[in-house]
Amino acid sequence: MIHARGLTRRFKVGKGVVDAVRGLDIDVAEGQLVAFLGPNGAGKSTSLRMLTSLLPPTSGTATVAGRDVVSDPAGVRARIGYVGQKSSAGENFRVRDELVTQARCYGLRRAEARRRADEVLALLDLEALATRKPGTLSGGQRRRLDIALGLIHRPGLLFLDEPSTGLDPQSRANIWEHILRLRAEHGTTLFLTTHYLEEADTMAERVVIIDHGRIIADGTAEQLKGELAGDRVTVTVHDEPEAARAAEVAARIAGSDAVTVERRTVRLRVPHAGRTLPEYLRSLDASGVKVATAETARPTLDDVFLALTGRSLRESDESHGTAPHGA
Ligand SMILES: Nc1ncnc2c1ncn2[C@@H]1O[C@H](COP(=O)(O)OP(=O)(O)OP(=O)(O)O)[C@@H](O)[C@H]1O
Ligand SMILES: [Mg+2]
Fold it and tell me: Helices then strands (H, E): number in the chain?
């Protein structure tokens, strides 16, 4: 469905340049659900805009839904849907009229356009809101309308740029229900960006991480976590000098990594916590360190990002969540 090679985009900003995307290579098979993750400014939206033919690449090639984004942008647009980071619905027309107009733009006859508008209203549970104006909708309702607009011409491939950003957890879950249903009932290929790592982890079958315009990880969430992050071990002891000793012991464990101490808590990463924790506790006991609590946790996608870049994606996620842009 998507085949991109060496896709790059450079923006001129004043006298300088910004290399927003630096050589994107990606293949997405029909029916896949791909989550595209990365911090603010990583190049997610720019990549999506190139793949949807909305922005010409500086160099590189991409075929999307069988059409070349540069030589046949109209062909690409006829076959894909795109839900941008900002809401695309106007303010002045009622929800159903907005959908009918959009359908007419794709060349459907009036009666057909009305029928299709009613179909997508049902698909996104928007029937009760058909005569409202978009300006009066809640954030989640409006996002559902954006998705309905993106689906009006029955595309086999849908791009969604942060479909759930800024919504409350319940609306986010609702958006996801609709996204998963699209795939289950219509076999739609979905390529979406999100800042919510848990969403990508549990919903997507494939996770692609981009940072500074380059793909730095690509696989299932389980693969990435297993290969790149390792399990987390957290041990608390009774005082700070003991914590320092516990950290020294931790650093000597085979395969241990990222040992940190915060007051009475020592954290580290190991390949297999189930095997390592008993060994660590025995060594602590032998060194005379008394352990108060010990916990292990499976890695998260944030641990993957941390392992790859030394930075946390969650920090940008949180700042993002409090200041959503767009919808
Ligand atoms: N039209 C433009 N002109 C100049 N620079 C741009 C333009 N669009 C994007 N950029 C820059 O390109 C980089 C990538 O931006 P992009 O919007 O693709 O990031 P993103 O991953 O979608 O981030 P976010 O999570 O904040 O949406 C950023 O440094 C951004 O400032
Ligand atoms: Mg973006």
Answer: 12, 14
Nearest CA to ligand 1 atom 2: 11
Does this model's pTM top 0.90? My answer is no
- Asked if 135 and 166 touch (Cβ cutoff 8 Å), the reply is no
Atom of ligand 1 nearest to the CA of 12: 4
Q: Is the CB of 44 under 6 A from ligand 1?
A: yes
Kind and range of the H or E run holding 54:
none
Q: Which of 7, 36, 44 most suits a substitution to test ligand 1, by most atoms within 8 Å of the C-beta?
A: 44
Structure tokens at 50: 């190139």
Q: Is 13 in the pocket of ligand 1 (CB under 6 A)?
A: yes
Q: How many CA atoms lie within 13 A of 270 on its CB side?
A: 23
pLDDT digits (tens, 9 = 90+) for 102-150: 999 999 999 999 999 999 999 888 999 999 999 899 888 999 999 999 9
Dist CA 192 CA 164 (whole Å) = 10
Of all ligands present, the nearest one to the C-alpha of 39 is: 1
Task: Give me the phi and psi of 59, to 5 degrees please.
Answer: -155, 170
